[in-house]
Model the fold of this input.
Amino acid sequence: MQYDVLIVGAGSAGLSAALTLGRCLRRVLLADGGPPRNESSPGVHGFLTRDGIRPAELLRLGHEQLRPYDSVEVQCLEIKRITREGRGFRATGVGTADDAPHTIWARRVLLATGVADILPPLPGFRELWGRGVLHCPYCHGWEVRGQPLAVYGQGRTVTGLALLVSRWSADVVVLTDGAGHLTPNARRRLRRHKIQIREERISRLVGSAANDLQHVEFADGSRLARVALFLHAPQHQRSALAEMLEARHTSKGAVWVNSELETSIRGLYAAGDTTPGTQQALLAAAAGNKAAICINESLTREECPR
Done:
């Protein structure tokens, strides 16, 4: 099975790239490997004309709008391996529904596989993720504005996030779950903005049946009522495909790309949360569109040599 472009990942970046490449009459295979990172979130916010839409509905619309483009094929497929072959790439994978093996050859590959968040190993964080435990005040701050909020973490990361979250609420408490490793200047800045610091050990987060946060429970049995907790969780790549191809990564683990969203491997592109930068669905869609344009122009140069 031969294609102009194999897109791995069918979130906002992958769907957007497939749409643009379909409009370029490119033969595209979009490999949909499963649920997106924001699956548990009640809504996607800040996405122009789609503010508050449920993640699954946004993806449904994206798939629906690919249907008129006959050159775009969508498969429920998990790509397991990609290797260089000639001037293109050979990919192998399995169907996510039937485990059927697939082999694909493509002239270009776009990785839009995203990242996975590494949450603290405490009861409640995973269960409340996306509703009571949140990663981005730009995505969710408005929904919890003016209410009691918590910010979890240590050091510079928690200081910066707490100051940012204070834009949405005057009642913000920093939770460090032990020694916070906060400098005197960080403590001074937090005090200036009336942000409390609690360094007691946390035993668990307690939520409602709807997975909204109700309170934080500390190891000594005391409780702190909060409606949401923000944190900058560490992340790792959801796919090891870029690593397998020995593509360059940044010091923070993102896949490095140049100004045309091409990785250090010629013909291999990446877009969305896989790459460095701010992580939002709208920005991922924009990056997918840009990557598709760059890929199409790269293919055109190959087809129309000087």
